[in-house]
Design brief:
two-stranded parallel sheet; 5 helices; 123 residues
């Protein structure tokens, strides 16, 4: 069984989310568009990041640390306050744009690092 995630990645996770409102009014397609727009804004500010809505595992802390230290990529847990189609859609739109820019700048480093730290399932 895998150990609990290390605090450096999960420490900033919010466990109380009183202001979080269900986003049923936002379709997953709209959320993907919003995620792509947010990624474009981050890219314009020089920020490289990826969003994860998975239940945190120990490998995520290792992945976040490696991506931050070696490539200045922020790996964010966006599912801490719940997962719904809007959270998933936003992450998909955001990550699709970011993966293209990260690959252009650094090559296929995200998958390589994820494999090295044991985060790729079945790989």
């Amino acid at each position: 069984m895998e150990a609990a995630p290390q605090p450096d990645w999960t420490g900033s996770r919010r466990t109380d989310c009183p202001e979080r409102q269900p986003s049923a009014q936002l379709s997953s397609v709209d959320a993907e568009d919003e995620g792509a727009l947010d990624a474009a804004l981050d890219l314009a500010r020089g920020v490289l990041a990826l969003e994860s809505y998975e239940q945190p595992r120990a490998c995520h802390a290792r992945l976040a640390e490696r991506l931050r230290m070696q490539y200045d990529i922020d790996y964010r847990n966006v599912g801490a306050c719940g997962i719904d189609p809007a959270v998933v859609g936003h992450a998909r739109g955001y990550n699709a744009m970011m993966h293209r820019h990260i690959a252009d700048r650094h090559g296929a480093v995200v998958e390589a690092v994820a494999r090295e730290v044991g985060c790729l399932r079945g790989g």
